Structures are given as C-alpha cells and as structure tokens.
C-alpha cells in the first residue's frame, strides 16, 4: 500500500470515527437501529417527544415557573390544566423560544436542545403552536390559507413561480376533510365562524407537518357542537403527532382523556398533580386551588 493510500485510509477512518461519535454522543442515535438522522432532526428513539427539567422563569422577582419538570411521550395527547397564573402560557413560551428560562433544560426528542434555537428554528424542526385567538389570512380563501402554510419555500419568487403538485393538492384535500372545512374551501376565511377559524389555523399548522403541537385553549368561544368536533379532531391526531393541550373547559378535557391518559395540573409554576383525570379531580389540593368544592 502506498503512503498516499495509507494517508487517505487513515483520513477516512478519522472521519468515520468522528461521525460515529456525533451520532451516538447526542443520546439515542445508536439506539435508533442504525437509522441515520439528518442534521437538526430530533431523535425520538427513546419514546420522549418533549422533556422539561427544572425550568424556572422569574419576572421582577415573581416566579412564573418554579423548577417545572414535565415529560411528554411520542404520540401522546397531554392536557394541561390549572388556575390563571399557574404558568401554562409561560411554559409554552419557553418551549417555543419566546421566553428564555433562568435555569433548566428543554429538549425536543433526545437530541435537540430548544434553548439553543430561535423561535423560527424551533418552528422549522417541527414544533407548532396555536394561540387562543385564531390568526388566519382573512382576505384569502380557506384553500389559499392552507396553500400558504405548506412546508415549502415560501419566498416571494418561489411562491409566484411554483405550482402545486398532485401530492400537495392531495394533502390540502386531506387536511380540509380533517378540519371539517372541505365544503368551505373557496370561502373567504374572514367569513368563517370563530370555531371554523380555529380549525383553519389548526389545519395551517398541520400543513407544516409538526411533530409536536402546542394548543392554547383551542375551544374558547366555540359552540358545543364545534367543541365536540374539535375533540374528535384532536383524538384523530393522537399517535401521529404529540399534542399538548392547555384548556379550562373540563368537559372538553374529559372528552380528550378517557381511559388511562395523563392530565397535568400546574399551580404557581410547578406540577401540583399528575395522573388520570378522575384521580386528579379527587385530589384535595387540586380541588382547593382550582376545581372548587
């Protein structure tokens, strides 16, 4: 073997060792049965979608979050309840990069440290958030809103020159059916009811194929029928996506958590109780600070 070949072989061995170290030191890629991840792709091999550890956030001396720890599994639908001021919105702000905690860790899967990323970067890797008030493009049609939300190059030139592929049209059709708006596809979004606008915004998030959905009081202001349909929608998404639902409507929470699903109660920035809804509702501390007698 010539010196040149020996040097080239040694170089390739170093590169291989370096790649292997990068693939396993981040915690979990070796356990992914040989699956290679793209740069910036979260690893869910351990079954955890979201991991918060000892998150503390203070505003002028007031602790909005106080050593909050929380784990959400892949494909899980988790409801978060608690009184106003419990820290629910601040928790979502920390996950999405809007607020930086004083201390603690926030991981997406086992490889992505969300505290190192910006808000746009967090959205790009698959974390979608829906606020309480729907934000849609009211002057555009329902179909056009979903088209704009496609996970693609949305720069002006690309948008002007691109045409939807058959697969993209099929995907928009699937989402329209899922959010109960197929019959409203060409309707101007501003003419939709409040509940329909909520569904449309959820559909816009789904067009971006998020792995984790954060939903803040999604049924506020909805009719009973719209609330029931929203529950059906979320249950259909369970398993395909991980969902964190912050909600005060206990009837809606009950619809989402039948069986052995876990509910988390926040109070004063920490987890007060966690478990099946019936157990949480029977917890004396939860009754005292939130549910009332």
Question: What can you tell me about this protein's structure?
Answer:
- This protein is globular.
- The protein folds into two domains: 50-126 and 212-233 and 245-293, P-loop containing nucleotide triphosphate hydrolases (Rossmann fold); 135-209, no CATH class.
- The protein has eleven helices and ten strands.
- Mean pLDDT is 85; it is low at 1-6 and 23-34.
- The protein is an alpha/beta fold.
- 38% of the residues lie in helices and 21% in strands.
Strand content: 15-25%
Task: Quickly give the structural class.
Answer: alpha/beta
The geometry reads as globular
CATH superfamily of the largest domain, by name, is P-loop containing nucleotide triphosphate hydrolases
Number of strands: 10
Averaged pLDDT, please?
Answer: 85
The third-level CATH topology of the largest domain is Rossmann fold
- Indicate the low-confidence ranges by residue numbers: 1-6, 23-34
Put simply, the count of helices is: 11
Helical content (DSSP H or I, runs of 4+): 25-40%
Distance between the termini: 83 Å
Elements, N to C (H/E): HEEEHEEHEHHHHEHEHEEHH
Count of discrete domains: 2
How are strands sequenced across the largest beta sheet? 6-7-8-3-9-10
Main β-sheet description: 6 strands, mixed
How much is the radius of gyration in Å?
22 Å
Indicate the CATH class of the largest domain: Alpha Beta
| Second CATH tier, the architecture of the largest domain | 3-Layer(aba) Sandwich
